[in-house]
Amino acid sequence: MTEKDLLRFTTTGSVDDGKSTLIGRLLYETKCVPLDQYDAIKKTSQKRGSGSVDLALLLDGLAAEREQGITIDVAYRYFETQKRKFIIADTPGHEQYTRNMVTGASTADLAIVLIDARNGVLIQSKRHGFLNSLLQIPKMLIAVNKMDLVGYSQEAFNQIVADYTDFAGKLDIDDITFIPVSALKGDNVTKKSEKMDWYKGPTLLELLEKTYVTANRNLIDFRFPVQNVIRPNLNFRGFAGKITSGSIKVGEEIIALPSQKQSKVKEIVTYDGNLEEAFSPMSVVLTLENEIDISRGDMIVRKNNLPSVGNIFDAIICWMDDTKVLNPKTAYFLKQTTNNTTAFVEEVYHKIDVNTLHRVKAPKVGLNEIAKIKVKTTAPLFFDSYKENKGTGSFILIDPLTYNTVAGGIIKKIRNTDVIEKPAYIPSEKEIGIVQKYTNLDPSMIQKMLIELNL
Amino acid sequence: MAYNITHLKQLESESIHIMREVVAEFKKPVMLYSVGKDSSVMLRLAQKAFFPDKIPFPLMHIDTGYKFPEMYEFRDEFVKTIEAELIIEKNKEWFGKSHPLKFGTDKCCRLLKTQGLLGALEKHGFDAAFGGARREEEKSRAKERIFSVRDHFGQWNPKVQKPELWNLYNCRINEGETVRVFPLSNWTEFDIWNYIKLEEIPIVPIYYAKKRKVVNRKGVLIPADYEHAIIQENEEITEEWCRFRSLGCIPCTGAIKSKATTLNEIIEEVRYAERSERENRVIDLNSDSAMEDKKREGYF
């Protein structure tokens, strides 16, 4: 029963697309709504003269939201089935809440975008798709909702599929699935619809249960940003961190950045006993064969698989501060992995209109705007492009006076490299052994070949 | 090798990461220890986060004087076994004087818990305080950040929360501000119990069901066997199989009908629970936004 995995997803829809009703139904039909809460919303529904129970009321949050009947902030919801635990980042879809959508999307493995079947593909549905693509969510489900209000018409559904597919060609998401639902009536949410024989696909819940979650993880490039140094006594010196990506084994050769000192992994320590191998997203403590100087903000990586190292790069940011616009003269604090440094925005190349995806030349970047910029940091960062590695390719900017988080950013491309000498590659015995098994060549010849291949 | 870990291990790793960030970036953190099941889980996570070192911050219990005797007993025994410093603080001005019958539950809570906490944070100069609250527990908590900044008066302003992206936590606070950090934000009650079982974490025995003397007040079972229990003269005391689903102060905590005497039985009961976790907490039921109002005033 405890052997479940975890899927984080985000939901976006425009006002009145029925997003709250859909989430309410998911929670209710997976039996994650306690009876007393259900009774409470039943009473409220009756008081408002509604014939049926309004499941959307389950999601009412802050007092201000109840007064205005809208969602202001990101809310996190939880439900589970026999197969999986789900965390929903429920975000409002209006343009002025772009920052909340970006926040919700930043941790999601999957995105549900709601489209009202009566309205077809509107500009906001495209905006939601664009933001999901920008944040590199690997899978998007388009829930075409309110099918009951278009007579469960296959033509209406197909039209939306055709229109959105056409638009989605511009996006960087390959995996898009369309599903016709009625959140209000419960069609194709957790139960197969009896009204839409023409739809042969799975229900929304089945899709959520089946989606392959590791698609969102980089299991190749080992990146270990050091959080703390653990020193209980003179005989133990360990480096605590959460493995951002990749995996590591005891005995593997590593290099520490920025010092470029080399060593081997001696132990992978946890409270539950030492491990032979650890991988993302585990939190562990590493000890090394020799004593090298490593502190918070440094990164431990494999000798033959280095991240970019540099202090000038291109990035796309979403501005999130409602009190100030982006100021190129300000020295912002920048946090990336466990690294805190100072950053200047050297250039604003252009803004991106979230509705049309067009580039817009404009000097000022304000709340909820997306812009491509050039960033310069005072100390070099160790990073990968966001597309390759979300954990090392993302950062936040903090205002030096207010300490507000003013922007979230994703790294596109390095602009300069701090010359980092690649350490000399020496093939391991294991590598030589493998080649020998297949070729029967002389080991010294194999060694030469491997070195040449790696240069 | 399948590079997958279970959802509980993922939650564990996330919580450990949060604790390590706090220890690295704040000057003087403290862990608020309420003796309940969530505190017990949080404590185990802290042991894991800094192993093989000791927990690098003290625990602090804000005592109201009205906790169950089993809780005090458990606290004093348990803390000895984990090598952590325990600070016990109270609002001296009102301790032993405030009572829900005298002031109402809202005011009593404000005096003994909220004021007690704020005074203690200031007295010790703590800038970050871990709390065991979970977003699933209550609707205003669903919208609170993992790092929740509070002003000089400990107040939460839901409208000026900093966005929280990826797992990049902004640990900078202004002079006079403090931060509440909730490492269990993404855990559910069901996760907590499964983890307690998996990790064999000790808990206060009154979480288990047994026959207790209670007064059945509109479905809430008010424990009658304790010194601080509030029982009216005309109320009938009966014996019922029941357990405490969440723990608070005796006058404001009811029991629920249950026969769950083992962890497995509790887990089954929680999975198919028909009532909310905090339904037995009299303080939350006062109004539709009771918790939101309390948090705005500086409550946890």
How is the topology of this model organized?
The complex is a heterodimer of chains A (455) and B (300).
Chain A: E1 5-12, H1 19-29, H2 35-47, H3 63-68, E2 75-80, E3 84-90, H4 98-106, E4 110-116, H5 123-134, E5 139-145, H6 154-168, E6 175-180, H7 204-210, E7 223-225, E8 228-230, E9 238-242, E10 247-249, E11 253-257, E12 261-269, E13 277-279, E14 283-288, E15 299-302, E16 308-319, E17 332-336, E18 339-352, E19 359-360, E20 370-383, E21 394-398, E22 405-414, H8 429-439, H9 443-454
Parallel strand pairs in A: 1-3, 1-4, 4-5, 5-6
Antiparallel strand pairs in A: 2-3, 7-15, 8-9, 9-14, 10-13, 11-12, 11-15, 12-14, 16-20, 16-22, 17-18, 17-21, 18-19, 18-20, 21-22
Chain B: H1 7-25, E1 29-32, H2 37-50, E2 59-62, H3 69-81, E3 86-89, H4 100-103, H5 105-124, E4 128-130, E5 147-150, E6 178-181, H6 189-199, E7 210-217, E8 220-223, E9 238-243, E10 256-257, H7 263-271, H8 290-297
Parallel strand pairs in B: 1-2, 1-4, 2-3, 4-6
Antiparallel strand pairs in B: 5-6, 7-8, 7-9, 9-10
Describe the structure.
The complex is a heterodimer of chains A (455) and B (300). Chain A is of the alpha+beta class and 455 residues long. Chain A has helices at 19-29, 35-47, 63-68, 98-106, 123-134, 154-168, 204-210, 429-439, 443-454, and strands spanning 5-12, 75-80, 84-90, 110-116, 139-145, 175-180, 223-225, 228-230, 238-242, 247-249, 253-257, 261-269, 277-279, 283-288, 299-302, 308-319, 332-336, 339-352, 359-360, 370-383, 394-398, 405-414. Chain A folds into 3 domains: 5-216, Rossmann fold (3-Layer(aba) Sandwich), CATH 3.40.50; 223-302, Beta Barrel (Elongation Factor Tu (Ef-tu), domain 3), CATH 2.40.30; 308-414, Beta Barrel (Elongation Factor Tu (Ef-tu), domain 3). The longest helix of chain A has 15 residues, at 154-168. Chain A is globular and about 80 Å long. The radius of gyration of chain B is 19 Å and the shape is globular. By secondary structure, chain B is an alpha/beta fold. Chain B folds into 2 domains: 7-192 and 289-297, Rossmann fold; 205-285, no CATH class. Chain B is 33% helix and 14% strand. Classes of the chains: A alpha+beta (455), B alpha/beta (300). Chains A and B meet through helix 2, helix 3, strand 2, strand 3 and helix 4 of A and helix 1, helix 2 and helix 6 of B.
